[in-house]
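Entry 14. Two folds queued back to back today. First construct below, sequence then structure tokens.
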Amino acid sequence: MNFLPPRRKHLNTTLKTAIAAITLAGMTGTAMANDTQLQFSVESNATRSISSAATAFERGDYAKSVSFSKYALKQGLKKSRKTAALSNLCAALGVQAQYDDAMEACNKALELKPDNWRALSNRAVLHSLTGNEEQARTDMQAAIVLAADEPKLAQNQKILG
């Protein structure tokens, strides 16, 4: 399940937080695809904490996903796994409307590995949520070049136009 909070420019922070909390409380544990909202992507790989972060995200427990991702980053990971943890952190923070911290995590992931399609896709979602549609489309197109067969990317591209 993926849920995205409202765009920053339309609601103040307090209202956004309240809407996200109410919606997440009602949707936790419900698996549903939403064809009208951009979706963050998470990665699961060989480390337990990164896999746990991805599982928590998919279950809608975004705070736990953040905790697992931050724990993973303290473990002295190889570059490929560190980029996965950062990209997952980006997604989990982004879905909680912590846009600045989420953007920082995505940018760090892309500094380490510029061809990380999940980080590019997640950054595209963040750009869209913060009103930067042109940069959102640019990042999404770059992600699609790297992983053209990913259904989530195709859906996000369709929404971005």
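Second construct, same run, same settings:
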Amino acid sequence: MNKNINTQRKTSYTSRRLSSRLALALSLAIILVLALTACAGPAPTPPPTTPPEQPPVTTPPGEETPGEDRSYTTPPFAFPIKGAYHEDLAQEQEALKEKGQLFGLLIDSTEAWNAAIETYGFESDREGQSLNYGDAYFESYALLIVFAEQGSSSVMYQFGKAEATESLIDVTLEQYLPEIGTTDMVMKGFVAGLDKDALYLPDGSQKPLNITQRTIPPTTETPVDDLTVEDLRLGNLSVRLAALELDFRMAQKPERVEMAHDGYEEWRYYENGIEILILENEVFMISTDNPDYPTPRGLKVGDSLETLTALYGEASMLETLENGNVLHSFDLSGQYHLFHAEIKDDTIVRLQVNLTM
């Protein structure tokens, strides 16, 4: 038994000596590691992703309360107006039609604005938009009324641009013709907000108006799996749109703007969930998670994968994203993937249209 105890004591002593040596070696190792750590710089931080993949989406003011006044107050903006067929207006339009021009009015005072409403009897065709513009507005800004050619209510219009040059106000409307039209006669047009200072010639007179219209032919029926150039739209936004036209259609300033490649690329982020890439002053890409911006075929964020397939057929390419969602991409002429739908749990969470380099 004593022999066992002695053996244990020797073993314990030997263990203590080994432990002391190990402790010394460990201490030296720790000191060395701390010294190396002190000499090293902080770990590099990965650069932020530009642009962010999923910007925050906020509800535009007034959207959450139906019926609330959501009138535009600061140019540039444009909203549609409507009214009954107007015989006197038709005569004024006919006189300009031979010159390829549309009829319009520049309004720079409350009196002129009220007189125009009374004369032509139009009303706002935008939900939440009133016609209440008074002295406070006209102190710095003006309104431009543009009347489209009166005719069938099935013909649709989109405001293009209103640009003040040195000698005139250049305005463009887009006319979308239906495959089958109605026979009724109605008034349609737009009211655009402009900066007042840009409307006058050096002699103080108003600049003349040059209002033209470009016509978009009706989209003929094609197989669901054929993507066309007309499909590259989301809501009232389309690729190849000039930056100035984009300002009028958004009717709001971007929440954030980022420039890249020495200004060659301009990324605009709007609070209503719209992301836009502009290259050389032209819209190159539109992306949104907002259901208020449907495709020309009626597809929107929140629709099912089944609806996507019914409207566009099978995707030509599938890609799993880093967030686990699946990107369904559709090509044009079998070459370029220009329309994309991001799917999560069989539901569309983002739509995108773009051009190709």
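Quick look at the second one. Confidence is low (pLDDT under 50) at residues 1-64. The CA atoms of residues 92 and 121 lie 16 Å apart.
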